[in-house]
Design a protein that fits this description.
Length: 366
């Protein structure tokens, strides 16, 4: 692939062309550093045409690490005996939601391990009702795993707007390799369809740099996002967690650098292909590059950041992977650092806004 051929496909996509899977794979494989930078710059330009230099902020509340799943990569999988299990109290969760709103974030993400028992799902409904009663309630994204259509509908009726459920990999063979038999690709995809049917702004995403995963697989992931008409994307590098079955996956400098640069390319190409969706620059990027990771995600075309607003005392017990950043920083310190780093790259927080992806309005009006 010559620079010229690469630029042709990049320009074709940036000017509204619909790349096929082979062209998406080419976009993910820039032939040199100059083309890679051109990819990031083109994606950033498109992001700024759609959203300006604004970044949507969502306060992240990791409200429980109790999980009924046993995903082979995940630090809070049910058979990790080293995890001290917790649930934040209603008061603590409401305090964090209020803090996010006081910080001007305009939105929160309530994330937890997966549970489908009625005690848990009913509690989430009650929490949503209480959040809706706050003086300036933040918009709520939920990320609590696979649930029935009734439960998803109940949560929409209680005020939740968005739902994040990663497909993890749109290639079934990879999905199967990283999950126990009880977690199937078909169920995961069906849950995503239920999330959309319930009326949520629908978010998904993948892990990048899984063992055996190639740029072809990642191109299929982007095609999956497009085929599923997804509104929001949250994806990032796979990072081994030492207490899991995938904890001994390669983690040398070269592998980590590749996961990082593939993650940035995935953000950029997803922006160019999906255009008006929300794309998060995730904590996993910050884990690899604590100083500039999330900022580089924004400069590759992302438009959402999810600063933690949960209580510090639980942070260590929600370690999905090794090296989670900001373990000892409270919400205010995290906010200050974030504002400083946004300033450095010329991006500005979009204060007090729900920050809906234009794609959702377009999808639901058509
Ligand atoms: N239970 C919910 C669910 O399954 O969607 C939300 C919590 S789950 C822990 C959130 C996400 O963390 C997963 O979808 C997965 O992509 C990510 N994650 C877990 N372990 C990871 C790892 N070792 N490296 C990178 N991301 C990881």
């Amino acid at each position: 692939m010559t620079t010229e051929q690469y630029c042709d496909i990049l320009n074709f996509t940036a000017s509204g062309g619909k790349p096929d899977i082979t062209q998406i794979e080419v976009l993910l494989s820039p032939p040199d550093a100059e083309c890679e930078q051109k990819l990031f710059d083109t994606a950033l330009k498109l992001k700024r045409e759609i959203f300006g230099n604004l970044v949507n902020l969502r306060g992240l509340i990791e409200f429980s690490n109790i999980c009924s799943c046993d995903c082979l990569y995940c630090g809070i999988r049910k058979s990790n005996p080293k995890v001290k299990r917790y649930q934040m109290s209603d008061e603590e969760i409401l305090h964090s939601a209020k803090l996010a709103s006081d910080f001007g974030y305009g939105a929160v993400v309530l994330q937890s391990g997966e549970r489908s028992d009625r005690h848990f799902t009913g509690r989430v409904t009650q929490l949503l009702n209480k959040i809706a009663e706050l003086p300036s309630p933040p918009a709520v994204t939920l990320s609590c795993g696979e649930q029935s259509l009734e439960v998803y509908k109940e949560w929409v009726a209680a005020g939740a707007k968005r739902y994040l459920l990663r497909i993890e990999s749109a290639t079934e063979e990879i999905f199967r390799r990283i999950h126990p038999e009880s977690t199937t690709f078909a169920n995961r995809k069906a849950a995503l369809l239920r999330i959309r049917e319930a009326g949520f702004q629908t978010g998904t995403g993948v892990m990048i740099g899984l063992p055996g995963q190639t740029l072809h697989h990642l191109a299929r992931d982007i095609e999956f996002f497009r085929d599923m008409d997804i509104d929001m994307i949250g994806m990032g590098p796979f990072l081994p967690q030492s207490d899991t079955p995938m904890g001994d996956a390669p983690d040398d400098e070269q592998t980590v650098a590749r996961r990082f640069s593939w993650s940035l390319r995935m953000i950029a190409v997803t922006r160019l292909v999906l255009k008006d969706v929300n794309i998060a620059s995730t904590t996993a990027l910050q884990t690899i590059d604590p100083e500039n990771g999330r900022e580089r995600g924004l400069l590759a075309g992302a438009n959402v950041i999810m600063p933690n607003v949960g209580d510090i005392s639980y942070r260590r017990d929600y370690q999905l992977y090794n090296g989670k950043p900001a373990l000892d920083e409270n919400g205010r310190e995290i906010r200050e650092k974030l504002l400083e780093s946004l300033r450095k790259i010329g991006e500005v927080p979009r204060w007090d806004a729900s920050g809906d992806p234009p794609h959702f309005a377009r999808r639901t009006n058509s």
